[in-house]
Specification:
Blueprint (H helix, E strand, L loop, with lengths): L48 E5 L6 E5 L27 E4 L2 E7 L5 E8 L5 H15 L5 H8 L1 E4 L5 E4 L3 H8 L3 H13 L9 H9 L14 E7 L18 H9 L6 E2 L2 E2 H18 L2 H8 L2 E8 L6 E9 L1 H6 L6 H15 L5 E4 L3 H10 L5 E3 L5 H14 L8 E4 H11 L3
Parallel strand pairs: 12-13
Antiparallel strand pairs: 1-2, 3-4, 4-5, 5-8, 6-7, 8-11, 9-10, 11-12, 13-15, 14-15
Helix pairs in contact: 1-7, 10-13, 11-12
Length: 425
Amino acid sequence: MRTGAKFPSTRNLDKPEGRLTNNTPDDARHDNAGPDECGRPNPPRMSTAIRTAIPGDLGSISVPSLSHTEPDLVLPRPGQATSASLVDVEPTELTPGVYIGEGRAKSGEKFYLRMERVDASNYLFWRLYVDATNKFIDSGRGLLKRLMHFTRAVEGVGGEKQFVNENYSAFASEVGMNAEEFQQLVDMLGQGGYCAGPDRRKRGAMLQAGDGSGHLYLGLEGSTYVTFASRCREISTTGLATTSDACTAAEMTKSNDAPSQPGEFRGVSATVIKNSLDRDADDASRRISLKDYFSLYGDVLMCVGSQFGHGKSWYSNRGIFRNPYSVIKNDYKGIAMVLHEFSGAVAKKFFPERTEMIVKPIASMQLIICETLGRDDYHIDNEADIDRLARLCRESCDAGDGFEAPDNCIKTEALARLYRTHASN
């Protein structure tokens, strides 16, 4: 990555670039092709790919390099997201295994929803996202924790508060930014309250927002989905993994619907494919910088794993977490429940046999569920006194002790009804 690349002036900051495309050639020039639907320039194309051999007859998977020759990230100015027009609250099947919808955050921004089945074409995108999030928000020595610890407020010229972090040289390789870009990140952290000081709640909230990433399950059984919210309608999750002509992603997806043997793709074990992709993700997560992460995943606001491989009358949501980039920006507020509701709306319309969604929420999410749903819309395992549970959750949120509630069994009919109400408000 060129360390001399510069961001535009902070007075003209726009949304982050770097959405991946499915048809980027390896030797593509780094040029822009006009604005996208968010009104920002299309991102520069990725640089030459690193090809990684995959065992068996699968061929090879092309993993784009995480090194960019142009700045792919432009840190946005807070409050610049567009409050949009009407919201379409009817879930639609875009392609087999991909369902889309729309929503509106409590803070007013319109966002886009998608529930997509995990297969060999998008597995690496999501696995790298989960691993990199874990790496950056780790409560022990995670990069974001250390950045917040060393970011502090000082009195500038005329008494104006300014934010400084005097450890750029120590952080440079991990953040992947030049000094000017690093200062913009420091300013955003400080202005959001994510800095050294007596109030630890903001710093704790940053790490807790991504905590669910450690619980999101990804598999290639054909019954695992990722439900997510994004800033823009068009977002590709397949740009990190493309396959040879002998076995395209579409063929793998098709064979996954009706495999010759359970868990196989054209005679290649799903376990072999998954293990190979996991090795790619492990390697990439060690190399990915914070700027790369913002560039690749800046459009993803929040996601959760949706598992349809258990009982026939229910599905489960597990591992919900917000992108740390969105936490820093403090935008698109109040979308977590809409994500669950959208999955319920999809289940009711396209999987009518699934009448319940099971979720094991942390304390803050349990409070949202208690406040949002009617008592007839759900029940909680081994917990008859919901008021008592809500009290325990409030105490846990105040203490920050990571309390996890029992399983909540929520009717998909109720989720679908609430989705149509909340997404359009």
